[in-house]
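tool=predict chain=A
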Amino acid sequence: MNKLSLLLLSLVLTIAVLTISATGCAEDKTQTLTQTETAIVTTTTTVSGTTTVTETITEITIIDDLGREVTIEGIPSKIVSLAPSNTEILYALGLEDKLVGVTEFCNYPEAAMGKEKVGGFSDIDIEKIVAINPDLILAEDMHKYEVIPALERLGFTVIALVPHNFQEIMDSIILIGRVTGTEDKAQQIVDDMDKEIKAITDETDKITEAERPKVLYVIWHEPMMSVGSDTRIHELIEKAGGINIAGIAGEGYPTLSLEEIINANPQVIMVNKENYEGGDISLQFILNESRLAVVDAFAMSQIYGINADLTNRPTPRIVDAL
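tool=predict ok
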């Protein structure tokens, strides 16, 4: 083989290698983009008389808390919230004018109660949502089996938010900010939350293990339901300087017997208190359960009803709960 042939063969092989490498890089980039948030901007130009009009369409693809890839085209102008927590975040971001549908349980801020109702927690009125025709729907975990698939079959864009702890709450705020064009406001809210949390934990971190009070948090009394080690209320108790006695009972919302509570001997008992008539039923049960009179919380008069909306909802008000 002469030198010219060798040179041509070398050139062909080099081009082939470069082509394979470029293809591999493109594939890797595509895989990365499908796993993270991406932003695509398409610009079209039209001419009207002597005026050039430029239209920008923003398309954002995100992975929501159910692991679903969702693409949002443009900044939404009509938003429906299927959870009180989502409603609170939208108001915190100043998006109340774009909020066109909420649940019957969206009671904060007070103005939210005047919005169009599209159902309760799981019993969502699909027909009402169709009539409203929103650009974006914010759902939660309970909607994943029936409501979200039904809405997506109708062509609606749905994002599910399922934050379990402080960090995930802040991540949800940032995510909603990104898809609604309020990212700067979202970042400011998160920064303020971080500062307030740190101001508290800088003090409570000084409390020694021996000084930390044992805490029972009661979600419901029949059966006696508390909070496990993977819940944000467990995180609240720890950040506030206490020890959650139900933390060793597992994850989720374990039930405890009266005997287990008496043996654990909590020094503080906190009980969910709902904002409706009779919403303190669990608190009254605890206060009137004579068998619990032997625990330190009774002797120290440290039994409290606590606003369940503050502790149970993954919103910026989690700092108020802390």
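The radius of gyration is 27 Å. The longest helix spans residues 3-35.
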